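Entry for the shared binder. Reason: the reviewer on the internal report wants the predicted structure included alongside the sequence.
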Amino acid sequence: MHQFMFSTLAAGTLLLAAAAFSVAQPPAKINPDAAALAKGNNAFAGNLYGQLSSKDGNLFFSPYSISNALAMTYAGAKGKTASDMAATLQFPFDENRLHAAFADMIKEINQPGKKRKYQLSVANRIWGQKDYGFLPNFLELSKTAYGAGLQELDFQKATEQSRKTINDWVAKETQDKIKDLLPEGSLANDTRMVLTNAIYFKANWAEAFNAKATKKEDFKVGADKKIKVDMMKQTEMMSLLQNDEFQLLEIPYEGRELSMLVLLPRKADGLAAVEKQLTADNLQEWVGKMKRYMVTLSLPKFKFTTEIKLKDTLTKMGMGLAFTEKADFSGMASREKLFIDAVIHKAFVAVDEKGTEAAAATAVTIRPTSAPVGQAATFRADHPFVFVIRDNRTGSVLFMGRVVNP
């Protein structure tokens, strides 16, 4: 398994080390519990990336969205189901402190009322079977910590209409970038609850690429295979690390509160080797060595959507009990035993001359059991690379992925 682990200090599910990743701007101050939660979430995100990256092709997902949705679900877990989830998700302390820390993260990301040069929003919602009688404590915690109010639906008599209602909410919260999160047949007439998280991000580059400079050029999709892609061009002062194996570049967004980090192997077929080195300590050391260069940048335009069903992956990671009839979610309801039927994630990303747009959503369905200034450098991303989108103020990484074929 690839150990893709980022270090701590910030609010969000995957948070980069403040000392290492404050190239563009100093990180915001956050409380110690949020920092401790971030450290645990980083480890979970790294393990999840390692599992998902074992498959070929492009990859994009929001570890924040997945952790957020599963944390809401964890609020209703008890016994070994809860302890297995906590271990897999690498939560560092008890439930009261945990959910309060998530609340702080959500507040930091949304920052209501603040004028920003980018769009960034997170929303949660719980959808429950009408008149089912979910426990008041669970519903109150979900509302106060996650802003996830309960909306009653009739899964039993109006299954497809319920699915459409949830999908419409997700589409609205993600500016229509995530459509049909729940595919046909994903809900049943005995579905009791669906817990959803949606995140949306859009920002312009601090220095836009000149669209007239974009040209069709080769992109190496393998050691001996090339395709033609739209390659964007610009030359600007940027933070960069270079060694014999890879280059690590920071591309800031307008306002410089958010950035994209691009990790580019030197070899066209070197992605897997670089991924294996991505430990928290290594990454912190690499970013700490970044210097300012006048960079001649070539970056492909790309746009794609990733759909992931996480049941098998999360089972391999240690929380398989939650998906079986032996699961204990008695913190949600007492009238019958419940288990997680599915965890569905979908993410969208588009990168062009103006900037980046990204969105993701996660659904958990519940059913009953039966360098120095002035140096010059070239950064040509014409082969597979890893990228993350982060909040420089907090160090929070909201999205991550790789481009194998633009």
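Summary line for the report: The longest strand covers residues 225-242.
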